[in-house]
Amino acid sequence: RTDDSLTEKGRIQAEQCAKTISDLQKNGTLGEITAIYTSDLKRAAETAKPIAKELGLEVQLSENLREIHWGCADGQLVKKMTDD
């Protein structure tokens, strides 16, 4: 349940994703999106925000959409934990 913000790379990817989704909707490849729901953690909300903006929607935040808590493994890379 780490609550880190997106990296610069993540922000760029979220903007690209928003543009792609918008383009797919405009050309009819993707059906109409009428709502965006996301976890209330920063990185999830920051990913959803440009998509919602592009589509003219509001992001609906929900604590119930958070991933499960992994205890001491939370936020750790599997390779690092295996090596340790």
What does this entry show, briefly?
This protein is mainly α.
Profile the largest sheet: 2 strands, parallel
**Uncertain ranges:** none
Shape: elongated
- Lateral arrangement of strands in the main beta sheet: 1-2
H and E string: HEHEH
- The percentage helix is 40-55%
Q: Helix/strand-derived class?
A: mainly alpha
Radius of gyration: 16 Å
Provide a count of the helices.
3
Write down the overall mean pLDDT.
Answer: 91
Proportion of residues in β-strands: 5-15%
Distance between termini? 21 Å
Q: Number of DSSP strands?
A: 2
Write the layout of secondary structure elements.
Blueprint: H1 8-26, E1 36-39, H2 42-55, E2 59-62, H3 78-83
Parallel strand pairs: 1-2
For this entry, give a set of tags.
84 residues; two-stranded parallel ribbon; mainly alpha; 3 helices; elongated
Describe the structure in your own words.
This protein is mostly helical and 84 residues long. It has helices spanning 8-26, 42-55, 78-83; strands spanning 36-39, 59-62. A two-stranded parallel sheet has the order 1-2. β1 (36-39), α2 and β2 (59-62) form a beta-alpha-beta unit.
